[in-house]
Design brief:
The chain is mostly helical. Helices cover 79% and strands 0% of the residues. It has 15 helices and no strands. α2 packs parallel to α15. The chain is globular, with a radius of gyration of 21 Å. The N and C termini lie far apart (70 Å).
Length: 302
């Protein structure tokens, strides 16, 4: 028996948002928004220079779109291994909800091209270069080159966030100053303990998928100690901008966020298990949010 036309229409309307959620999930927009915020931090940390509101918006959206392109490429390429992990097996390409077709790959490449072209046209060439380098580092260097070859994959892959900071700074001034370079270094040091904490929590899944993340190679206990030491280095480096003109608000945010992160990584060292690893992972988000908030508040108070 055929369903009434009204019922079919209702089902179709209900299914449309679900389809869009599947499509949007491919682009890892939560990570993209975080990367965009780091680019805005790069904009804010430059004390001198000129940037129109339109240029700032274009730069932020370019970083978001470039990150989305890299995230989609990662899911496209990693679909087979994603099926082996409980955390990722329901991703759109891994589950078959979306086809791994040439059309999708063309769309991913086109999205990156639009992002870089927009930054080059409305902002400047150097900012566009950093936008491209950030996406290509994650998509090509990390996903294709390093992820399955070395436990230090995420260390080099962390440059993706650093390039976003530099893109923001270059949008304001092509002369990259010490504050921007230090913030980029902070992002470089932040990524490994952030991601390694998540890897400790999902160590068994990475092992099953054959991905040599740090805790798979050295064990969770040693990985936890490395996370803690790396976080200590991160917190110390995050205080260096104070010597180059960063204000007291930034300093307060860096200290409070850093101490919170260190407290969680110390707990991870004492008890290296999923609950403490996830607490460390979320603490890394708090610390980065505090740092970026300090940068923005400093810029407002200048």
């Amino acid at each position: 028996m055929n369903r009434p036309a009204a019922a079919v229409s209702t089902v179709g309307l209900a299914a449309a948002p679900a389809r869009w959620r599947v499509v949007l999930s491919v682009f890892k927009l939560r990570i993209g928004l975080l990367i965009m915020l780091t680019a805005i931090g790069g904009l804010a940390v430059v004390p001198d220079g000129h940037l129109t509101a339109l240029q700032g918006i274009v730069l932020a959206l370019s970083v978001l779109l470039a990150s989305a392109s890299a995230g989609a490429f990662n899911q496209f390429v990693e679909a087979d291994s994603d099926r082996l992990m409980k955390r990722t097996r329901n991703r759109a390409f891994a589950s078959g909800a979306l086809p791994r077709s040439a059309g999708w790959m063309l769309a991913i490449v086109a999205l990156l091209a639009v992002a870089v072209a927009a930054a080059a046209w409305w902002v400047n060439g150097l900012a566009a270069l950093f936008v491209a380098l950030g996406a290509l580092t994650y998509a090509v260097v990390y996903t294709l080159g390093l992820k399955r070859r070395t436990p230090w994959n995420i260390v080099i892959g962390g440059l993706a966030g650093s390039f976003a900071v530099l893109a923001g700074a270059a949008a304001v001034s092509p002369q990259i100053g010490p504050l921007a370079l230090l913030l980029a270094l902070v992002l470089f040091l932040w990524t490994p303990p952030h991601f390694w904490s998540l890897a400790i929590a999902n160590q068994a899944e990475y092992a099953a998928a054959g991905v040599p993340m740090l805790p798979v190679v050295v064990g969770t206990e040693r990985a936890a100690r490395i996370v803690h030491l790396h976080t200590l280095a991160l917190v110390l480096v995050s205080l260096l901008p104070l010597a180059f003109g960063a204000g007291w608000v930034y300093g307060l945010c860096a200290v409070l966020g850093g101490l919170h992160f260190l407290r969680r990584t110390q707990a991870l060292v004492r008890t290296p298990q999923r609950s403490t690893a996830m607490a460390s992972f979320f603490a890394s988000m708090v610390q980065l949010s505090a740092l970026l908030g300090g940068v923005l508040l400093d810029a407002i108070m200048r």
